[in-house]
Design a protein that fits this description.
Helices cover about 60% and strands about 15% of the residues. The protein has a five-stranded antiparallel sheet. The chain has a three-stranded antiparallel sheet with strand order 8-10-9, covered by helices on one side. The chain is elongated. The protein is an alpha+beta fold. Mean pLDDT is about 80; it is low at about 1-10. A hairpin with a 2-residue loop joins strand 1 (about 65) and strand 2 (about 70).
């Protein structure tokens, strides 16, 4: 600051020999020069950027290890562009910090402002510069930790992709575990990196920084109870493998296809194209019915069934024949394995029959059921049989009702 005071005083002392009009002309020249410099600086840096781009595209080559990209020319050039832009703004600030005080120093009324202005600019810059120089070892340590974490994550991402594509097989490790496991390990690596880097951050030892950290920790712990619960439930569901994307499942009496499995919720699409979202904690605590567990339906098919009741006056062989005929006329129903009938109950006035059919087209389950029901009605009508089950009701006189109710 003393140097700039001497410089400003010298200029002011020399300038005092000239008349006010001459000093105004000198100030105007300084201003014009500064305006020209401000106009030319972006042009100069654009030319430099163009040269760097041309040089970088020719000299910087893509460096990979087993398809893992470690160095890309585009990323290197983007980093250089950021540094170049910072240098441009610093150069403009330097021009202004020199020209404005020099103009102020030409006049007696503003010459003190020149020294003050220089002090306002130079003192913070000097403090920042020396603090930055002393912080360089910590900065290098942080950069090393960040780079190590970054490339560990890249290696894990490459391995996860190979496992997911079944190019790398690990016994007991399913391909659909690859991406969730990668996300978990990535989070743990970043969390560990933050914990290691934290003491090296500027101001980490200050009471204000520690107070803010404690406050943020309290807010997160109070507001994330359910979120953490859903996250843990999502991890458990991932490794339980009760369903996959595209499976037809039932949760909480809602049946649909799994559209999304996120760390916090599960979203299914019903046959009516309604999207229902369940928190993972609710899914974990509910019973889940999967109609196509890991593609097993592609081998034999999903069994659909319908129950009817029929009076004992009709032989069970006739009912079986009619039900099988109705199943055979239903579209999207497999004939191998063949449909079959089960007799599931003998009630007081009728018997229960269950027709079972196989299908692989689980997307059309409601339509298959609808057509199966229609075919059953049509077949019984064509056979001249009434599907109305026999029910009997005995009407007692009031006196007899009273005796029944009293237990006599």
């Amino acid at each position: 600051m003393g140097l700039w005071k001497q410089l400003a005083g010298m200029i002011a002392g020399d300038a005092s020999k000239f008349s006010l009009s001459v000093r105004l002309c000198i100030a105007a020249v300084f201003i014009v020069i500064q305006v020209v410099l401000l106009a030319l600086t972006p042009v100069l840096f654009r030319l430099i950027k163009k040269k760097i781009t041309s040089f970088g595209q020719k000299q910087v080559r893509l460096f990979t290890i087993k398809k893992l990209k470690l160095l890309e020319s585009e990323r290197v050039l983007n980093a250089v562009y950021v540094v170049l832009k910072i240098l441009m703004y610093a150069f403009i600030l330097l021009q202004l910090s020199i020209s404005i005080p020099l103009v102020f120093s030409l006049f007696v009324l503003t010459q003190n402002l020149a020294a003050v202005f220089f002090g306002y600019i130079l003192t913070p810059l000097k403090t920042i510069f020396f603090d930055f120089i002393s912080y360089i070892p910590n900065l290098i340590t942080i950069i090393i930790f960040v780079i190590i974490a970054k490339y560990i994550v890249r290696v894990l991402r490459f391995l996860a992709g190979q496992i997911e594509k079944r190019k790398l097989v690990l016994n007991g490790f399913y391909p659909d575990w690859a991406q969730p496991t990668y996300n978990i390990l990535r989070f743990l690596i970043y969390a560990f990196t933050v914990a290691v880097v934290y003491p090296y951050l500027p101001g980490a030892d200050s009471s204000s920084f520690q107070g803010v950290s404690v406050f943020v920790g309290i807010i997160v712990s109070l507001g994330s109870t359910s979120a953490i619960g859903n996250l843990v439930a999502g991890i458990v569901l991932t490794y339980m493998r009760p369903f996959r994307i595209g499976d037809r499942i039932t949760i909480q009496n809602v049946t649909g296809f799994v559209e999304e499995k996120s760390p916090f919720n599960t979203r299914i699409r019903t046959h009516k194209n309604e999207y229902v979202t369940f928190p993972n904690m609710m899914v974990l605590n509910s019973s889940i019915t999967n109609f196509d567990v890991y593609g097993s339906g592609k081998k034999e098919g999903l069994i659909l069934y319908a129950e009817i009741t029929f009076g004992y006056g009709t032989p069970w062989q006739t009912v079986h024949e009619i039900l099988l005929r109705a199943a055979g006329k239903t579209d999207r129903v497999l004939q191998d394995p063949e449909p079959f009938v089960l007799q599931t109950g003998l009630e007081d006035f009728y018997a229960r029959y269950q027709i079972n059919v196989y299908t692989k087209e689980i997307d059309y389950v409601p339509a298959i059921y609808s057509e199966l029901f229609k075919n059953i009605q049509n077949e019984f009508r064509e056979a001249g049989l009434d599907m109305t089950a026999a029910h009997f009701r005995i009407n007692l006189p009031p006196a007899a009702q009273a005796q029944v109710l009293s237990g006599r």
